Amino acid sequence: MKALILTLSGAALLAVAPAVAQTAPAPVKSHRGHAGKAETRAEIQSRVATHFAKLDGNRDGFVTQAEADALVAQREKKQAERAQKRAERRDPAAIFAKLDGNRDGKVTRAEAEAARTARASAKGKPAKANAAGGLFDRVDSNKDGMITSAEFAAAPRLQHQKMDHAGMRHGKGGMFGMADLNKDGRVTVAEAQQVALQRFDRLDLNRDGTLTPEERQQARQQRRAQRTKG
């Protein structure tokens, strides 16, 4: 069960394919989370144990397919809710309504600036003078100093997003077997750690017991190359 494996050992480690060749790693520009720092085998084991405890709902020392599925469903629900909220924030009609302070069906430059100032203030940041000016002029197609709902709807989607700122599963059965090493229908923390460490060792190209961001990046590059060849 990929969902289980990713959760137990960290997506940054286990989502990448095994490293095959040991070519010189490319410079790493930026990283996030665990992928942005070096990790040892002991740290991986500790992180797996922490994630395992979250999955083991009944605290019996085992994670079943049902427990893993429950966590996946919970995460998918949260992701769907976040996606819905993003879609609502980017809806042109909803964005226009936020900008149209006096509800007269038109957005003036002053309203656009006021909306941006309010948003900056809510974030505790100083508002930039005339920050919405250039964008306002591009959306105001007839240059009358006002934006109608029709003009706003006709503007490119990227502009809608910027104006908004101004105003405001894979098949789980077989994968479960990857972690269920003794095939008893349950996964123990030891099994989860073993799977994580096996992948760790494949990615640890120089075999020094530490997985670096550069090694992770190299694995990603090799995975992309393999997909291209395939």
Give start-end ranges of low-pLDDT stretches: 1-32, 163-174
Strand percentage lies at 5-15%
Mean pLDDT score: 75
Structural class, judged by helices and strands? mainly alpha
- Biggest beta sheet attributes: 2 strands, antiparallel
Order of SSEs: HHEHEHHEHHEHHHEHEH
Question: Gyration radius, to the nearest Å?
Answer: 25 Å
State the helix count.
Answer: 12
Shape: elongated
Q: Specify the helix fraction band.
A: 55-70%
Written description of the protein model:
The chain is mainly alpha-helical and 230 residues long. It contains twelve helices and six strands. It is elongated.
Task: Please sum up the structure shown.
The protein is mainly α. The protein contains twelve helices and six strands. The protein has helices spanning 2-9, 11-14, 41-55, 65-89, 92-99, 109-122, 133-139, 149-154, 157-167, 172-179, 189-203, 213-229, and strands at 39-40, 63-64, 106-108, 146-148, 186-187, 210-211.
Which features does this protein show?
230 residues; mainly alpha; Recoverin, domain 1; 2 domains; 60% helix; elongated; disordered N terminus
Which helices and strands occur, and which strands form pairs?
Elements: H1 2-9, H2 11-14, E1 39-40, H3 41-55, E2 63-64, H4 65-89, H5 92-99, E3 106-108, H6 109-122, H7 133-139, E4 146-148, H8 149-154, H9 157-167, H10 172-179, E5 186-187, H11 189-203, E6 210-211, H12 213-229
Antiparallel strand pairs: 1-6, 2-5, 3-4
